[in-house]
Specification:
single chain, 224 residues, mainly alpha, two-stranded antiparallel ribbon, elongated
Length: 224
Amino acid sequence: MSIKGLDTSYSNAFPNVNSDKVSTLVQSETKETEQGSSAATAPSSIVTLSDKAKTASTQVATSPSFMEIGMAARTKLDVAKQQGAEKTGATVSSVNLNHVDYSAFSDQELAAMNLNSSGNFSKDEQIQAQGVLGERVRVSLETYRGATNDGDRRGHAMAIDALYTQMTPEMRSVLGWTPTMMNANDHMLAGDEKKFGKLSLAGILAHLETSKTEGGITFENLAR
């Protein structure tokens, strides 16, 4: 199986990592008051949100849309191209996109650029963004290349599944990572585990988190 944008075959199986559950505490108090000879019952409900619930609520309310992410990426790219033009003495329009520094762009911003979510990226810029995102995947998986070439695809498989779990739908679309591909990945992993046994997942997750500092895909080891 060939992963879009990469030149190595991969496979995968990694259990989904559970997210933190947001909880709320509901307290109800009923008070009875008497005025003269009449009695009235006035129920009141007090809802207390946990700190995690408040954080999650704030994030949802303030999360930018995919179009807004594209607009932010457009601004970043314009600045990067301007800096490139100043260094080389070229015009902004003639700056080689291969020479632009994309380290400040998030994975989701690259996806927004490729999918042209804000409608203001050229075809060349879209293609470049896809290539940069694919390169980040390659960096994250590079450590497993040797074993994969020797026929043991377990590390690659489990790493791919872990990355897929944390990718946004837009990132998966840009990379061409589909449910069909992941099912095939699981099938190959199962076959290799029968041959070689199971690998430790902890080491793979730790590696993926570290690889983001070396230019890989952003990954958070939630199993720590």
